[in-house]
Design brief:
By secondary structure, the chain is of the alpha+beta class. The protein contains twelve helices and 18 strands. The strands form five sheets. The protein has an eight-stranded mixed beta sheet.
């Protein structure tokens, strides 16, 4: 969350950043509240000093045998006024916090300016888009024809936007998960973490999902929340910590189920596995020194790209414009994989540099010296979404007879299987 004093001293920078974001600036409202808060604090301190002085004089008068009834009455009145002022101060402080906690991060200087996804910039393309001698079939039809993907039964037990994977497709999902984790731990040096899937409010507040995006989340009757991404528990490992600078960078990866209500997405990608309420994802998290975050962002992107390169899936990299950035991000790269049935690229990974936005909310800091402590920078990325990788393989590796070739790098994880066929 922003420091209101910083906004007051940098109002032009703040307003311009919100303009780039395409959101109304709250600087005027916040600064006016801050001024009221400062005035109340000054008045409160004045009354406290007066009360303390009178209390001291009462003690002196008592020792001299003087009458103190009027003074004691005044002290009582001052205490009531102080209590009222303190409530007013707390109320205004709370209003400032509520106002600022839903304000998004400031875009980085090298994030292109634009209103929405139409202004995102393609910066890289990789791989060869496959050419078929037949009309490519969507992944959900391929899975249904294989008898290994069941939306109907999943809907019967859980509702819309759930899927049951069976037999070799369940094995393919597990193979993809293990393949990704092996690459990120053995080749890229991430530490594997198995985190909780249920978190409290403070964890989601720290990474920026709460309070603004509560409608996108699932909450249990105990008050816990199902994680929308393992970015939440992984990043919160450093919440309220002061880390020695020599311990950085910290790099974590995990495979978890992710749960999203997809509020506001009615009618979008309702068929297939593009937008499910529950899906698996391999996450990448980096905690770094501020001076290293830009470099770490480029590294994280390459780590995610490596997965698609080894799977030989065609993809492109897009840098998001200011109007399409996520709430906590200062700069974001999206990786989009090619889907033949849609004849377009679709997002499979998003790698974001949040700078100090999350660490300020989480109080995650590093120690430079005995007296020098500063906020760390946090980064997160998909390494990659397992379900979308699976459907991309189904579509890009499909054959005319409905069978699916298995990418060579996955075959060791598939018990040597090189093809998934109907009625095999």
């Amino acid at each position: 969350m922003y420091d209101i004093r910083w906004i007051k001293d940098n109002v032009d920078v703040f307003d311009r950043a919100m303009e780039k974001r395409g959101v109304p600036s709250v600087s005027s409202e916040a600064i006016n509240l801050y001024k009221k808060h400062v005035d109340l604090i000054s008045e409160l301190q004045s009354l406290q000093e007066k009360r303390n002085s009178l209390s001291k004089n009462i003690g002196i008068k008592k020792s001299n045998g003087d009458d103190v009834l009027d003074d004691m009455k005044t002290v009582t009145e001052l205490k009531l006024s102080i209590a009222t002022l303190q409530e007013d101060c707390n109320s205004i402080k709370n209003k400032i916090e509520k106002l600022l906690e839903i304000v998004p991060n400031i875009p980085s200087e090298d994030t292109p300016e634009g209103l929405d996804e139409n202004n995102n910039e393609v910066i890289k393309e990789n791989g060869i888009i496959p050419k078929f001698s037949f009309a490519p079939i969507p992944h959900d039809i391929l899975g249904l024809n294989l008898g290994m993907m069941d939306f109907e039964k999943a809907s019967e037990m859980s509702g819309a936007r759930f899927v049951i994977l069976k037999d070799k497709l369940a094995l393919l999902e597990r193979a993809l998960s293990n393949f990704m984790l092996n690459i990120h731990t053995h080749k890229h040096g991430y530490t594997e973490i198995s985190p909780p899937s249920l978190v409290r409010d403070n964890a989601l507040y720290g990474t920026g999902q709460l309070p603004k995006f509560h409608e996108d989340l699932f909450q249990t009757s105990s008050g816990h929340w199902l994680i929308p991404t393992s970015e939440v528990p992984l990043t919160n490992i450093v919440a309220n910590e002061i880390i020695n600078k020599d311990s950085l960078p910290l790099r974590y990866t995990s495979l978890t189920s992710c749960f999203r209500s997809e509020a506001g997405s009615a009618g979008q990608d309702t068929k297939g596995m593009i937008r499910l309420h529950e899906f698996k994802k391999v996450e990448l998290i980096s905690i770094v020194k501020p001076s290293n975050s830009a470099e770490e962002h480029e590294r994280m992107l390459l780590c995610a790209e490596e997965i698609l390169k080894q799977l030989q899936l065609p993809y492109r990299v897009v840098i998001l414009c200011t109007g399409d950035l996520g709430f906590s991000a200062a700069k974001t790269y999206d990786i989009e994989v090619w889907l033949p049935s849609q004849n377009q690229y679709r997002e499979i990974s998003s790698c974001s540099n949040c700078n100090a936005f999350q660490s300020k909310r989480m109080k995650a800091r590093m120690r430079n010296s005995e007296k020098d402590i500063e906020l760390v920078h946090t980064l997160n990325g998909s390494g990659v979404a397992v379900g979308r990788a699976l459907l991309a393989i189904l579509e890009n590796y499909q054959n005319e007879d409905g069978s699916i070739d298995i990418p060579s790098v996955l075959q060791p994880f598939m018990n040597g299987l090189d093809k998934i066929s109907i009625n095999e």
